[in-house]
Amino acid sequence: MPNIFDTLLGQAKSFLGSSGGDAICGVDIGSSSIKVVEIRKKEGVVVLQTYGELALGPFAGKEAGQVIQLNQDIITQAITSLFKEAKVTAKKIFFSTRSSSSLVFVLDVPSVSEREISALLPNEMRKYIPVPVNEVVLDWWIIPSEIDSALGHDTTDTTPKREVLVAAVHRDTVKTYQEIVRAASLQSTGFEIEMFSTIRSSVRYDLNATLVLDVGASSTRVAIVESGIMRSFHTIQRGSHYITQAISTSRSIPFTQAENRKRSVGLLGSGDDEEISAIARMTIQYIISEAQGVVLAYEKKYGRPIQKVVLTGGGSLLKGFSEIAQEAFRAKILVATPFQKTQAPQFLRDTLETVGPSFAVSVGLALRGLSE
Question: Among 9, 173, 188, 196, which is disulfide-ready with 181 (CB 3.0 to 4.6 Å)?
Fold first, then answer.
C-alpha cells in the first residue's frame, strides 16, 4: 500500500514491562479525539505496551466528543498531554492523516509497461484531483496484473487495462502535521492516510472482497479490499457526531448528555427511547445507503460479490449497528478486533475487544512501524 510521506483526559492505560525491541507508537488524530497505541516486538510476539484516548473538545472550549477543526496548537497540547498520561516512550512514531484532507482512488490505464504508465499518470490524475497537482503530495502503486488473474477478474477485454491505486494529500495538510510534530518535540517516522492503517489492523488477508465501514465522528470511510489491496474508497460526510448533535437539538439537552443517551439507547430502542433511536437510525441508514452504492458500483465493475463487511470506528459501537448492517448487506458481518494482533494482559482482553474498533487506525499505524 502507498506510504504517503516518508481532566481533559479520557482513558489511558499503561503496563510497561521489561524492554524488548524498539517501541513503536501509532497516533490517530481524529476530528473529536486523539488515540495512541504503543507496541514493541518481544521474542517474535507483538506486545501492547500502552494505549490511550483524549477528547479534543475541551481543548477548544467545547464538550468532550464534539468535533473540532484541525488546529495546530490544540493538537500539539493534546498530544503532549496524552503522551504524558499514557506514558508513551517510543521514539518511532507514525501519524494518521484524515481522509477528509486526502484523496484515494483507482485509475484504469492502458496495459503498457510500468515506465509508460508512470509517464501517463500525471495527466490522468489531473482529471480526478480538484487542485493543481503541484499542490498535493502524490503516491501511487500499479496493481500487478497477476493479482487480477488470481482474483478472477476479467483480463480478456479487447482493450486491456491496468489498475493504479493513487493517493494524494494536500501539501498544506502535510505542512501542518509536520509543524505539530515539531511543536510537540517529537520525531515522526512517517504519516499515513487513516484507511490504510485501518485495513492493516482489521482486515485479514483474503481473496474474497471485503467491505470496510469505518464510522468516525465527522465522517464515514468506505473501502473495498481484495487480497489486502484497496479496490475502492469513498468518504461519506456523515458520522456519529451528527447523531449526538441531532439528539441534543431535539431534546434540548447538553451535548454530553445527548452522547450518553445515544450510547445507552442505540439504534433499536423502543417506548420512550424510540425517538432517540429513530434519530440515530436516520444517520446510520444514510451511511448504509451510500455504502450500498459503493458496493453496487464495485460488483458491476468486477462481477464479484462482497463476502464480508468489517465494522470499525467508534460509531460502529452503537447498539444494534451490526443487526442493521446484517439486514442491509448480503454478507458476513464482523466487528473489527485490531488488538487481537497484539499480546496484552488477560484482564484487559474484554476491554480491548470492546474499544477495539475505535483504535483500529492507531493499531494499524503501530503495526506498520514493525514492518519497516
Answer: 188
